[in-house]
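Please check the following for our workbook:

***
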Amino acid sequence: MKKKRNLGALILVAALFLNLWTVPMLFAAAEPETKGSGAPHAKENGDKYRFSFVDYDKYMPASRQFYYILTGLEKSGWIAAGSLPFTIAEIEARQLSTAQMYDALEQADLGPYIAFAEGAFYDVCNEDKTDIASDLKSRAGKDIDLVITFGTNAGVFVKNLGLPIPMTDFSATDPVASGIIDSATTGSGNPNVWAHVEPSLPLRQLKYYHSIRPFTKLGLIVYGDEIISGVPDIEASAREIGFELVKYNIAEQPRETAEELDSYYELVRRQLQSMARENIDAFFLTVDLINDLSRMQDLLKPLYDKRVPVYLMDDVEALRHGALMLINAYDLVNVGRFVANAIVQILNGAEAGSLPCVYTSAPGIYVNFDVAKRIGYTLDFEFLTACDEIYTERGYREGQK
């Protein structure tokens, strides 16, 4: 059972995070409806609508969000109730990738309206992009009716193919800056392209982290594309809040084999050791830098030896493995319903590029209490009562033994 939360603290957190001080009764973002215009239906010829999925590498947050998109479609009636071949508990326990989820969906009977096309899962990080492009172009409009993409790289890749079928992207850091869509408010610029937009996520996160314990010098190590890591918003935060940004960059590396991974994480280790010598007083861990969470505690040790707090941009599971705190913008259930609602409206005849893209989640607050004790990071009672979950070294989340 979830613990009772301090209402006053929660109102303050929501106001700080969403930057909406003028809305005194704001507790959470409204739950999106999961419906379109019309009841679930098959295609005119009686066939099911067939989906494809395009991903970028293995990343557990993608699996979790994909699951809640599926349950959003289930809630709307487009996927038959009880037909999903896995639960969120099974995804967590077995660490199922989106590729493994897709394989199970491909074999499942999800009811009369939706199916996942055979062999239509693609990974633009680990597969040949020319082959993926050729396959998608040859199948689009034939045995693939809609493409779901995860994140920035996959979204940009599919958008640039100019497919004659709709695509829906979720979890891109900034779909506008990356060019997936032209605007979050006035249409995507392409009738077949839709992307979920969570406005200025790093800016809102850093405002909140700074409000808890002000920092003057923030460390940041960016892997690959700066837009994916939210660097424009982070730099805007530095100007608006008033702190110095110490930024290192790591170019994209081969990370497929065990040897490549070891080489990559040795590079990350050296960068973190150098960062710890920069006299920073906070560190912001962005996406895709440390995907192997089993290495996280060891990698973060140089920072914690200097009592530097490590704040997260994404992935609550990283807390259990050694990060300090996450202010999470992604209310997975309701973001899933929002994306599902866009898919439903497209299936009911709406133009993808005309649909609303912006959904601002209510904040979730997560902290690793033992890391806080280790580095002398004081957490007062009011803050702790506002937290959704508190992680400890005993291996469970407070309230969820």
In short: The CA atoms of residues 312 and 386 lie 18 Å apart. Confidence is low (pLDDT under 50) at residues 1-12, 14-30, 395-401.
